[in-house]
Amino acid sequence: MLRDLKPTDIICGYNVRPGYYDMDGATPVRGGINFTISSVYATSCTLLLFAPGARTPYVHLPFPESYRIGSTYSMIVFGLEVDKFEYAYSIDGPYDPKKGMVFDKTKYILDPYAKAVAGQSAWGEPQRDQCVYKARVAFNDYDWGNFKTQSLPLEELIIYEMHVRGFTKDESSGVENRGSFEGIREKIPYLKELGINAVELMPIFEFDEMGAHRYYDGEQLYDYWGYNTVGFFAPNTSYESHKGHKHHSEGTELKELIRDLKTNGIEVILDVVFNHTAEGNELGPFFSFKGIDNNIYYMLTPDGYYYNFSGCGNVLNCNHPIVRNFIKACLRYWVTEYKIDGFRFDLASILGRNEDGTPMDQPPLLKSLAFDPILSKTKLIAEAWDAAGLYQVGSFPSWNRWAEWNGKYRDDMRRFLKGDSDLAWAAAHRLTGSKDLYDPLYRGNCASVNFITCHDGFTLWDMYSYNEKHNYKNGWDNTDGANDNNSWNCGVEGETQDADVIALRKKLVKNAFASLMLSRGAALFLAGDEFCNTQFGNNNAYCQDNITSWIDWSRKEQFKDVFEFFKYMIAFRKRFNVITKNRRESDCALPPESLHSQKPWQTDFNSESRYVGVMYAGASNIPMLDEIVYFGINAHWETADVELPGLPTGYVWTLYVDTGREPEHVICENENVILYDRRIKMQGRSLIVAVAHRIG
Q: Which residues, including other chains, have CB under 8 Å from residue 575's CB and lie 6 or more apart?
């Protein structure tokens, strides 16, 4: 039971006392607010209180030296009403840039543990004093009750990557609360219809979309994606609809969204950015870590400049014990307070670098997260590379806990599916769980997150509509964005009315998605791919807050056959569990997984091979019945005569999918197409799926 706390001092007319030193941030306590902040090299710290929206503080409350223990300042201020103030800090200390110390007591310093950042709730409205951020106290009083959800194995995940604003911002979304957490909640029936079982939200930690805003060709450009974090513990309040919003309960709308998603069987994964911050380099803003302990929180050169392995100006010094504890505390907070199921770590190879930037064999941060008891059931997914050339797909330190975005899956499958040579063996590996990258005895099927498209790059439709990127609207003369897209425009660059080209593009989209759904490992795809959403050839739409990045829901009707195909393949993957993992042994004597060329059991792939067949076999949940699934991909532009493997007595192959058929007959499960002679002539650039049925 909490006891009543009594003031011990008066500072500037406010009753105060030493606070709780292990309670970081600003936290309501009985009778007041507890403020705690730490700085190793500071010589003094002052709490600044502002009227809501004010540019200057109405009171400075210096921490007495007796209120400092070690490197931590803590003070309870009595009588504060949480809705009547905002706060920041002024921190003084040495100024020696060559040693990385750049203290400046004239700067307002944002609490890195702030649960809400003031002045950020209205999207696209610049602050009057740019890059000056203040915090608000937020209540974590959302009642989850005895809410429980069952965690899915990673290899069974079908992850739908979305941008919170772009998902419903366009009028065609048909929701009331466009561009918000609530807008996504309105779309939950759609997500259930589609069949995905996880969403991956692009950054939702507080960021300032106006932090680097500019104009190009009359259009305003933003930090739309949000990969420049301002507040790590604060949700982005510009994603709230604000209807019925209770002041200082930031995060409630997000929690309601998460609760409803999980209630409907959809896990929530956050895309998190711990490799750098919005403070940038020497020329960037100064509002948080720079003013606390610049030489601890950032990797600095011997001359005090910022390393830039992120490509964004600075790099967090993730393996310093203080920074490591900060990151772990942040992840724990999102798991305990928001019930998050997993995290995808942007440019995660940076998290494994030492303080001098060199890669480490067993990075302390990655290891501590892998073995943290609160995070033990949380999915940890690494983007296993960084902007400085460190590429660790297949070698990212894992302790059998970390999964990886499989960039080699994306690259190899894109090239194979468009018909490049010498890719058959690579495709065979990728389809069957990338065992050449991930030891199946050690890591099973829970290491690879397979994807062909994501936010970074072409949409799936654009992948078959453009040979080259078209990023001129970004304002960098088309120099930004990747050049190695491994795309093919099917003979015409961009939009076309040519019916044959459109039909070919739709077929290739179906081939790619079916391949993804039939691959072992978790599957991830970009929101809107299910109805051929386009970014008009922009493969780096990070600054486009417009129809370039917004999903155009009118295409759902225009590409109805593609949408229905996506639904079908998602349901197919769920129905046949043998796809995602080896089932218990059956009596069929077939191996649980096998590779085939156009002739069964032959894997004489060579540089000109453009066909790969895969068969999965195992016992089903029904007694005396086996699950046997075969799929074949003919990436060649010519037809292929294919023979399927023989089956146990009493089974025949039934064709379920053939993308070489007319659109209305691509899904042919109910047409009873039985391949009695186990042979089929596949059309060029097509994919088939067959299932063994017991007869008699």
A: none
What's the pTM? 0.96
Residues 580-632: tens digit of each pLDDT: 987 666 667 899 999 999 999 999 999 999 999 999 999 777 765 789 999 99
| Separation between Cα atoms, residue 287 and residue 291, nearest integer Å | 7
> Which residues on neighbouring strands pair with residue 449, listed in sequence order?
405, 522
pLDDT tens digits for 136-184? 999 888 999 999 888 999 999 999 999 999 999 999 999 999 999 999 9
Q: Return the amino acid letter for 603.
A: T
The tokens describing 216, both together, are 């190009």
| pLDDT tens, position by position, 551-578 | 999 999 999 999 999 999 999 999 999 9
Pick the catalytic residue from 383, 412, 530, 626. Answer: 383
Q: Which residues pair with 389 in a beta bridge?
A: none
Structure confidence by residue, pLDDT tens digits, 605-616:
999 999 999 999
For the chain, give percent helix, strand, coil, nearest 5. Answer: 25, 25, 50
Q: What are phi and psi of 95, to 5 degrees?
A: -120, 100
| Token pair of 377 as six digits | 């059931």
Annotated catalytic residue 346: yes
**Is 594:615 a contact under the CB 8 Å cutoff?**
yes
Place of tokens 């001092």: 9
Structural tokens at position 443: 């890591």
Among 279, 346, 456, 658, the active-site one is 346
